[in-house]
Amino acid sequence: xxxxxxxxxxxxxxxxxxxxxxxxxxxxxxxxxxxxxxxxxxxxxxxxxxxxxxxxxxxxxxxxxxxxxxxxxxxxxxxxxxxxxxxxxxxxxxxxxxxxxxxxxxxxxxxxxxxxxxxxxxxxxxxxxxxxxxxxxxxxxxxxxxxxxxxxxxxxxxxxxxxxxxxxxxxxxxxxxxxxxxxxxxxxxxxx
Length: 192
Known about the structure:
The protein is of the alpha/beta class. It folds into two domains: about 5-105, 3-Layer(aba) Sandwich (Oxidized Rhodanese, domain 1); about 120-175, no CATH class. About 45% of the residues lie in helices and about 10% in strands. Helix 6 (about 120-140) crosses helix 8 (about 165-170).
């Protein structure tokens, strides 16, 4: 699904002007760790994997103002907007370029202490270890280990073509990427 298929979108500069007026409701659907590392002032965290659009809309009340949805580059925000559309709400706007576009534009961010590696860096390290180990084992132990670098390469190709990284999804659920990174103004803390 392309950006043009959504009802609306906003550039980082447009969103910044709305945020300065106090008229922007910004929903960040990244992981708690990504949010803690850098987020837009006033943004609310609700990770995509925890987003129940119907429940969010119900808790929000009968508001009709636009929800500006942001993630790191746009893929997760698109999926979040699709969830809102399935829940019957058409008032979401995709923030073009995501958080990366916001930071590239030099707009203000709140930065937390980096306590862990960014998610994509964790993906790169994991793929590098698995590929290197698979290649070494294929050369020294058994040729069947060549499947490991083949599978990681196919995973990277799939992620590049679709914007969906299964390994990032798995790593985001790991204990070191959850919970403690939540910030007080977020709504990522769910009741057990």
